Amino acid sequence: MIRDYADHAANERTFLAWLRTGIAVIAFGFVIEKFDLFALTLLAGTGPGEEARAELERYSGPFGFGAGHAFIAVGILVILGATVRFVRTGRLLDDAAVHAPGILPDLAFGVILAALLVALSAYLVFA
Questions:
Q1: 27: nearest Cα among 86, 76, 80
Q2: SS3 annotation, the chain
Q3: How many domains, in total, are found in the chain?
Q4: Tell me: the pLDDT tens digits for 100-127?
Q5: pTM of this prediction?
Q6: Which of 25, 32, 119, 121 is nearest to 77 (CA)?
Q7: pLDDT tens, 19-53?
Q8: Contacts from 84-92 at CB under 8 Å and sequence distance 24+?
Q9: Residue 58 belongs to what domain range?
Q10: How far apart are CA 127 and CA 110, in angstroms?
Q11: Which residue among 20, 38, 49, 65 is the one 20 to 30 A from 106 at the CA level?
């Protein structure tokens, strides 16, 4: 029997939620990065009017490439951080001492992701 099974199960569910979030951030990065390829393919094809062509050229710039890679890197960091947090929390659950909760990794992830989303939104609105 596992001591404090409910706590360990909650730790594992939290770990899986962070993994799912990291995979979603990585997938969003791929979408952003590949949008440039999609826009360039549309430009190379026949048919878009001059106004649509100008709009696609505006969105197919180097920013999408950089933003896509940034989201992919943040997603990988989320997965690595989740793994470290899972192992650390598992060890702390097995320890009998009382420990203070740490909020810094969660806060840092939120700030980084919000900054990336604001930068991407600003680019799409003002570019």
A1: 76
A2: CCCCHHHHHHHHHHHHHHHHHHHHHHHHHHHHHHHHHHHHHHHHCCCCCHHHHHHHHHHCCHHHHHHHHHHHHHHHHHHHHHHHHHHHHHHHHHCCCCCCCCCHHHHHHHHHHHHHHHHHHHHHHHC
A3: 1
A4: 777 887 888 889 889 988 988 887 787 6
A5: 0.71
A6: 25
A7: 999 999 999 999 888 777 666 666 666 566 777 66
A8: 85/15, 85/18, 86/11, 86/12, 86/14, 86/15, 86/18, 89/11, 89/14, 90/8, 90/11
A9: 5-126
A10: 25
A11: 65
State how far the Cα of 106 lies from the Cα of 80, in Å rounded to an integer: 13
Whole-number pLDDT of residue 120: 82
Give percent above pLDDT 90 in the chain.
33
